[in-house]
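One-letter codes give the sequence; the fold follows as tokens. An example follows:
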Amino acid sequence: GRVVIVVSKDCCYGVDTVTGEAVWRRVTGRDLPFFPLSLTASAPSILLFDTNHRELVLLDRDTGKLVWRQPLEEAVSGPPLVESGQLFVPTLGNHLYKIDLGTGRATVRVTFSQQVLSPPVLDSSRSRMVVAGDREVFYTLSMRPFECTAVSYSGHASGSLKAPLLTMGGLVLATVNDRAQSSRLRVFDARSDNGQLTEVASAEVEGIVRDQPTLRGNQLFVTSSGQRITSFTVSDSDGRPPVTAGPRFQGQGPYEGPIYLLAGADGQLWMSSDSLRKLQATPTTLTEDPRKVAVGLTNQPLQLIGRNLFVGRRTPFSDAVYFSQVDREEMSSEWRTVAGATVLDWSTPDAAAAVCVTEDGTVFAVPAGEL
């Protein structure tokens, strides 16, 4: 009765966590700007952006039924910030919307001189948020009243911020792709009374960073192109360095797609790229478990329920999504379902069944009673 989310082609599916059966499906359009978010409004819900109609949509997670929809008439730049029953949604039309999570009603719209990136992040007091502009500056906004209070110059180039900002206590981390084969972590202190950001540290990372870094406690893990993980120890205490480089991991193979990371207890990490890997982090090493599952090109974030991970990936020859339940300790899978595999051809050799082949290379015999 509990579902996890799968996105394939132009549809979003709710899939039962135990059986792998599709419970509901909704057409959303292709190229979603963010993976659907699991939220709790009046009931467990799913928030997504419908690219066909350019509207935010809230669905009941268990049934897929519509709760509300809010047209925006412009594309959003990524996932919203969810805080105190409100959604803060940056758009590519130079706007930041404040939307009530319960009703879907847009209550405030702030206009900027450029595109603003998603999602905003809160400072340590949770009374202010920081939003990255596409180029050169960061904006600080107060929550009450909701207005821009400071603009901080950073000098980053347009398009150089691919990964979202990250709050680390009183610090804000921005990952800037400023070179062809490397990126720079830039750490800003966000605790000034006037809201100005002050750069206090930086560190270089090999490869291009496209995915949000992962923070667990004081350990920061940054994924970059080439299936790399670079770890850091972070601190916002006076007298201690904000970032200190730690061990690194280098995967094998030519994979250059998205990399999703999940950090668990006792230094455990799960990395989804060209397969699902399990790693063990210590102060001096990042060690890979030899067991690999869910081989393929990862195409959606890892989802965790209990001890089970849910992994989505595709093959080089098909856009259909293979979706698997994986025991995170044993690195074994009990089922796999395929979403979005178009039927290429079919025939009825006799009256008892139809035989079809789908784009992922699977052949099905469908009894007449199921048609």
